[in-house]
Amino acid sequence: MLGKLQRFEDFVERLMEGAVGRIFRTTVQPAEIARRLERAMDSQQLATPEGPIVPNDYLVRLHPEDFVQFADFADSLSLQLEEWLLDVAEERDYGFVDQVRVRLIGDPSVPRRQVQVEAQIAPLPYDEFASRQVWQRTEVYRVLHDTGNVPRAFLRVLEGPLAGQTFLIRKKVTTIGRALDNDIVLEVLDVSRRHARIEFVEGHFEVIDQGSTNGTLVNGRAVERAPLSNGDRLTLGTVALEFTTAGA
Questions:
Q1: Are 159 and 122 in contact (CB under 8 A)?
Q2: Coil, strand or helix: which one is 155?
Q3: pTM beyond 0.70
Q4: How far is CA 4 from CA 31, 40, 91, 229, in A?
Q5: Number of H helices and number of E strands within the chain?
Q6: Cα gap 221→236, rounded to integer Å
Q7: Strand order across the beta sheet in which 233-236 lies
Q8: Where are the alpha helices (DSSP H) in 44-114?
């Protein structure tokens, strides 16, 4: 099963690159969703003379600010999670009453960085594939609207121990710092625990220093608050990053 999980993670990494042109970290990892689905499958078996029947219909609930990180490839991720469950079921000789469906939803009642799964054994509509695609895209549109229609932007680490890593920005407020509860974690000693944040305000991005020890620089100039444009260089301690916007 570890081999299957590794193949799933490899696929998702390629999927991310294809969807947004970058590899990025998210607060909820796709592998966490896969494991929660696996546990839901294992815990809700129905014994039958032909063998165990397991849920085929899964609803994954994420906080909207976690869900939005998957917005650009939610439909493809759902499909790959369905394939993952089919692989698990085949390995364990589980049966289904119908095809497998996985849907992702943004739910503000779910705590940040948590995954909640609802699973049931149920027949699905005959045109489920097409209807699920429409449903998932509608859910993506709803969550993007509810979270402020923030366009995609990226921070790519140019220098320092994290050089080459790229982070996706898709929220109205994105925090940056050394502490693990930041949206973007830079585990470098001269980066403050809560160093800076990036906000999407009135149609543009801004960076705000949060009283950091070593300051925040935009294109070499120390700032407390400054607008960001495509190609700007941010410096936090010894970490240099490039800010880019999608399609630029």
A1: no
A2: strand
A3: yes
A4: 11, 18, 10, 41
A5: 5, 14
A6: 11
A7: 166-169, 153-159, 239-245, 233-236, 216-218, 221-223
A8: 64-67, 74-92
**Site of tokens 């976690």:** 66
Report the C-alpha gap between 143 and 137 in whole angstroms: 10
Name the DSSP class of 71: G
Contacts of 217 (CB under 8 A, 6+ apart): 223, 233, 234, 235, 236
Express the helix, strand and coil content of the chain in percent, nearest 5 each: 35, 30, 40
- Amino acid making up residue 35: R
How many whole angstroms separate alpha carbon 32 and alpha carbon 106? 16
Q: Do 197 and 174 touch, CB atoms closer than 8 A?
A: yes
The residues near 92 (Cβ < 8 Å, ≥ 6 apart) are none
Given a contact cutoff of 8 angstroms between Cβ atoms, the answer to whether 237 and 217 are in contact is no
What is the DSSP pairing of strand 57-62 with strand 101-106?
A: parallel
Residue 128, H or E segment: helix 128-146
- Other beta carbons within 10 angstroms of residue 96's beta carbon come to 16
Taking the chain (248 residues) in consecutive chunks of 10 residues, what is each chunk's mean pLDDT? Answer: 64 57 60 92 93 96 91 88 92 94 96 94 86 91 91 88 84 92 90 96 95 96 96 94 82
Rounded to whole angstroms, how far apart are CA atoms 44 and 119? 8
* One-letter amino acid for residue 238 of the chain: T
